[in-house]
Specification:
hypothetical protein PF0899 fold, 2 domains, 7-stranded parallel β-sheet, 14 helices, 13 strands, 21% strand
Length: 364
C-alpha cells in the first residue's frame, strides 16, 4: 500500500529560535500561515487525487508544532479529526524541535490522532549545534527520543550535512549515534545558503564555505548506506525542489540539485558495480567488453546521469564497451556482470553484500 503525506505548511509557527540556516518563508515559498478553510480545502483536494489503495497522513511541516500554544495545536488537529473519524486519513504527522518534547504535549498529540513525529535534529555534534544556533545540546535529543519511545508514535530524525563547523567525520558520528536511537525513518538535507539568513551573511563575508555537490553526494551516500544496513528507512535525500525556491534568487550557494536523491542512488550503484569490476579486472585483465544486469527499475540509477557511471567504469577499468540489460526477476539493488561473449555470470553482488564490504574497507 502506497503512503502519501498531505502537507500543511505553518512556516515558523512556534519556533522561538533563528537558526543560522533557516528562512522558512523562502524554503516553503509561503508568506502566510494557512487558515482553517485553506487547510480543509487542501486535504479535500488532495484526497480526490490519491488512489484508493493508500495510507494517508496529514503532515504539519515548516514550524515547530509542539512549541505552538497547546490551544492552537489542538485547533489544528481538530481540523483533521473529521477525516480521521471517516477513515479517509489514517494519521497525522508533525515536525518539531527535540527541546519541545514533553509528556503533557505528547499526551495531547496521541489523543488527537498524531501517528508520526519528526524531530529536526540536524546534528548530534555539539559544536555544530552551537555554531548553527540550534539552542540545545545533543543530550536533549537523546532525552526526547527516550520519551517518544514510551508512546506508539513513529519517530523520524531530520539531519543536515555541511553546517558550520561540520565535517564528514562528524556526519558519520552523527549517523552512528542516530542509528543508536533506532528511529523509524530519517531525512538527510545538505545545507543550502538561503537568502536573508545569518548563514547567507557569513557566506557573503567569506566566513562559510558550502559543500560542493559531489561532496554532499558522497557524504549522503556514506550515511545512507549505514542507515540501510541498520534497517532504517531514509525517506528523503535533499530539499524538496519547490518551484519558487528554484526560480528566484533564494538559493545563494550550496549543493542544490532538483534530483539530489537520484544522484546519491547513482553514486551507490557506481561504487557497487565498481567493486565487482575491480574483482573481475583482477582475475582477467583481458576482458574488454561486459554486460551488466539489474532489475529493470534500477537501470537509470546504474547508468548514471548522462551515462556518467558507464564512462567512469570504462576509464577506471580499461573497458571498451559496457552493455546494460534488464534481468527479469532480479532482486532490487543487486548487480550481475559477465563477459560479453559468455552466457554465464562472472560475478554478482547484492546491496547487503556491497554495504558490508564497502563499509569495512571505508572504516579501515
Amino acid at each position: 500500500m502506497a503512503h502519501f503525506n498531505i502537507p500543511i505548511f505553518i512556516p515558523h509557527s512556534g519556533c522561538p529560535f533563528q537558526c543560522i540556516f533557516c528562512n522558512q518563508h523562502k524554503i516553503t515559498a509561503m508568506d502566510h500561515i494557512a487558515g482553517d478553510d485553506e487547510i480543509q480545502d487542501t486535504i479535500a483536494i488532495a484526497l480526490r487525487t490519491l488512489p484508493d489503495d493508500r495510507d494517508v497522513e496529514t503532515a504539519f511541516f515548516g514550524g515547530s508544532f509542539t512549541a505552538i500554544d497547546k490551544g492552537r495545536q489542538k485547533h489544528y488537529l481538530d481540523l483533521v479529526k473529521p477525516y480521521l473519524d471517516a477513515g479517509v486519513i489514517q494519521g497525522i504527522r508533525i515536525s518539531t524541535r527535540p527541546d519541545f518534547i514533553d509528556r503533557e504535549g505528547l499526551d495531547l498529540l496521541l489523543e488527537a490522532g498524531v501517528t508520526t513525529i519528526e524531530l529536526g535534529v540536524q546534528s548530534l555534534d555539539d559544536q555544530v549545534l552551537t555554531a548553527s544556533g540550534r539552542g540545545y545540546k545533543s543530550e536533549r535529543v537523546f532525552q526526547a527520543v527516550e520519551l517518544l519511545r514510551q508512546y506508539p508514535f513513529q519517530v523520524g530524525i531530520q539531519l543536515m550535512i555541511g553546517l558550520p563547523q561540520d565535517h564528514p567525520a562528524a556526519d558519520i558520528e552523527t549517523t552512528v549515534k542516530t542509528i543508536g536511537l533506532k528511529p523509524d525513518m530519517v531525512r538527510i538535507y545538505p545545507t543550502l545558503v538561503i537568502a536573508e539568513t545569518p548563514l547567507a551573511r557569513l557566506y557573503q563575508a567569506g566566513r562559510y564555505k558550502p559543500l560542493t555537490l559531489q561532496e554532499a553526494v558522497k557524504t549522503s551516500m556514506e550515511m545512507y548506506l549505514r542507515f540501510q544496513q541498520a534497517g532504517i528507512r531514509v525517506i528523503r535525500l535533499g530539499l524538496h525542489a519547490d518551484e519558487e525556491l528554484i526560480q528566484g534568487n533564494n538559493i545563494l550557494a550550496g549543493p542544490f540539485h532538483p534530483s539530489f536523491g537520484e544522484l546519491v542512488q547513482q553514486e551507490i550503484y557506481k561504487e557497487q558495480a565498481a567493486l565487482l569490476l575491480k574483482d573481475l579486472h583482477r582475475r582477467d585483465q583481458n576482458i574488454k567488453k561486459i554486460k551488466v544486469y539489474v532489475n529493470r527499475r534500477d537501470i537509470s540509477k546504474l547508468t548514471g546521469h548522462r551515462r556518467s557511471n558507464i564512462l567512469y567504469w570504462q576509464q577506471a577499468f580499461g573497458l571498451e564497451s559496457i552493455t546494460i540489460e534488464p534481468a527479469e526477476g532480479a532482486a532490487r539493488d543487486s548487480i550481475s556482470i559477465c563477459d560479453e561473449g559468455s552466457v554465464s555470470t562472472a560475478a554478482a553482488i547484492t546491496r547487503s553484500e556491497f554495504i558490508r564490504t564497502y563499509l569495512l574497507t571505508d572504516d579501515l
